[in-house]
Protein: Recombinase family protein
Amino acid sequence: MKVLPVKRISRDTESSSALERQDIELREAIALGNHELVHMVEDATVSGAINLDERPSLGEWLSEPKVYEWDALMVTTQDRITRDDMHWWQFVGWVLKNAKSVIVLDDPSLDLTTEDGRMIAGIKATQAAKYRKTVQEKKLKQTAYYREANLWSGGVWPFGYRTEAIQFNGAKRLRLVKDPYTAGLIREAYEQIVDLGSSMNRICIDWNARGILTATDYQKSENAKENKQEAKTKPRGVRWQPKILKTVLASPTLMGYATHKGSVIRKDGLPVQRAEPILTRAEFDKLQEALAKLKSAGLRPHYPPTVLSGLVFCICGRPLYSNSSRRKLADGSLREYRYYLCSARFADQMCPHRVSWDRDFLKEALESYFLETVGDLEIMNRAFVPGRDLTSEIAELEGAIENLTQAIAAAESPIVVTALTSSMERHAKNLETLKAVPVVPSSWQEQGTGVTYRQKWESQSDWDGRAELLRKGGFKMYCSGTLAAPVLHFHMPENIERRLDLRAIDYRPEIELREGIPYDRASGRPVASLLEAGERQRS
Structure:
């Protein structure tokens, strides 16, 4: 008989030997019965509640053409087939309709062709379903209890956090805390997107090159370091993609809020604070605004990023992208031209400042501006000091109190009025508490490295390292004019400007960035509009 042995477990861990034991039992039974092994089907980490035809491995063997390759399905126990009684009866009907057999090793007398056999198997299926439901209900109650007690109930850590063991009511439990490493990466992404105008695609490329693991893989690697026996420890090697990064950066967990199915859990109108925030509410809102402006989020770039990506921009504010072309010379040879163009074409627009900028010229200009301006400035390590601002929470509570006031006015039942009034009194008390908390702005602490930008620049062997130094430092160059008469504007972050001012260097950048658009500081107008009107030319 052509036999299709099937292995399944709901939770696959490194220490679990369930799949291995099933494999041994199934192979021994096939050899003992002189059966032909068609294929060893394995569905690891697949719940018994998932219908058979929807399972990753088994599903394809229940439909054409593979359904014709076997005669009997073999399992070690009946619940390896399913733990759902309705799915079981559907499967029985399918087996009889397709003239298949079922072999259950711990119940050799199973016979689905007789009424008594189907009745006994049906009772066992119902018992398995009841057991699964009991386990589910117990897990849900446990999860609700942990959520109420602000404990971690299990699963993938939110990126930026990890768990630590604590004693709770005399037992060892877990709670969520900030992870120094991944929380620092969240701060890095925030700065790159909000302060430096970088794209998620650029961040993903950088993180993948640095070997930074995604949330699940990072947790597995940490499990391996701690030698956890009952946890997955082998990273799958999932790479960062803009969609994955956007999901991380759009999660309210970055503010330390407790969530359930993506929604913030609230108590008395306030978000439940599960852990120390990585981003303040104001910073989180600012990040979401920046993400919304990245129209290409989750899409593949039209051209692969190059060494100057994120560093050179058109004066209209759009990034320059790299292109190349070939021309045939008089002697018949081909010459390749490499240049940068304004990306306005991807927005179906034509930029009036469209110029083909030679790659080598832009590199030389960037190096010259950078070294002459900040080359002798010491590189500083910056540490973020989070502030405290409950303005958003106060506004939420005030809105909740206003809604309750209207609901009380419209309520007719005294019981409803009493319940609403009680909630409003709690909100009012919480509001007083929040208003008493002083606002502390976020800040940065700087510490010298003893290395100047020039020394760091010269230590880089190629432009990849130099470009990364510029990008991480927040330096950019905006281009206008023509290649014969270029008008270039070198922009640097506010903290660098401030340090140059403190050193009394006679340098005042003529532009400032507002949402990625260069503005003339003297007139307060966009530089591009001034150039179009011919009001001012600078170099």
Observations:
- The chain has four domains: 2-136, 161-293, 312-382+449-533, 390-438.
- Residues 84 and 129 are 5 Å apart (CA to CA).
